Amino acid sequence: MKKAVVVFSGGQDSTTCLIDAKSKYSEVHAVTFDYGQRHNKEIEVAKKIAKKFNIKSHKIIDVNLLSDLAISSLTRDNIPVSCELENNGLPNSFVPGRNILFLTLAGIYAYQVGAEVIITGVCETDFSGYPDCRNNFIKSMEKSIQQGLDYDLKIETPLMWLNKAETWCIADAYDSLEFIKKETLTCYNGIIGEGCGTCPSCSLRSNGLSEYLLNKGDVLKSLKLKGVLKIE
């Protein structure tokens, strides 16, 4: 029995990964983190989606200490989310250490349930410039977790080299485009579905959907050439 643990926020990317994992693994677990995020509505959305897809277990982990340590527009209501980069070259929505903590805890949970794989929806192609979404970081974390646990645990990143149009195509291939469009929460301002339409996350998501709907054939061909999409 192949088991996987999905790092799950209830957003477009992690929901796409969850649906994809359901088709590839006989047992899928999900972990969602409560870190004091400004759009904490995502926790309830994640619960609802996990229930809909009959996830084996859905664990909510309280890591509110992260919001005490990491100053970001996603952990402070008084800091507006901005598209402008800070002096360090990163957007103010970057939460320092978030994926270090999430993957470490997901690794511990995967060890306990006997999962071979952690799945996370991070992406280097269409992302906000976060250093903890880059492939070299993921590979480094994978090695550290394996050594620290003495356990051959892989970290899979199905969306790492895909753009948002290609991510929408995967959802469509699983007949889940409308569900992800209407029921997931990606918006930095906590608006379910199509979101506020103005924050960086909403813009990325909306532009990707428009590109996919205009170029379905080309996007599908691209995914098949990459060997990502094998379902018809």
List the defining traits of the structure above:
five-stranded parallel sheet; 232 residues; 9 helices; single chain; alpha/beta; 11% strand
Describe it for me?
- The protein contains 9 helices and 5 strands; from the N terminus they run βαβαβααβαβαααα.
- It has 232 residues and is an alpha/beta fold.
- Helix 1 (12-24) crosses helix 6, helix 6 crosses helix 8 and helix 6 crosses helix 9.
- It is globular and about 45 Å long.
- It starts with a strand and ends in a 7-residue tail after the last helix.
For the termini, the CA-CA separation is: 25 Å
The general outline is globular
The succession of helices and strands, N to C, reads: EHEHEHHEHEHHHH
Residue-averaged pLDDT = 89
What topology emerges from the helices and strands here?
Layout: E1 3-7, H1 12-24, E2 27-34, H2 41-52, E3 57-62, H3 65-69, H4 98-113, E4 117-119, H5 135-149, E5 154-156, H6 164-173, H7 177-183, H8 200-214, H9 216-225
Parallel strand pairs: 1-2, 1-4, 2-3, 4-5
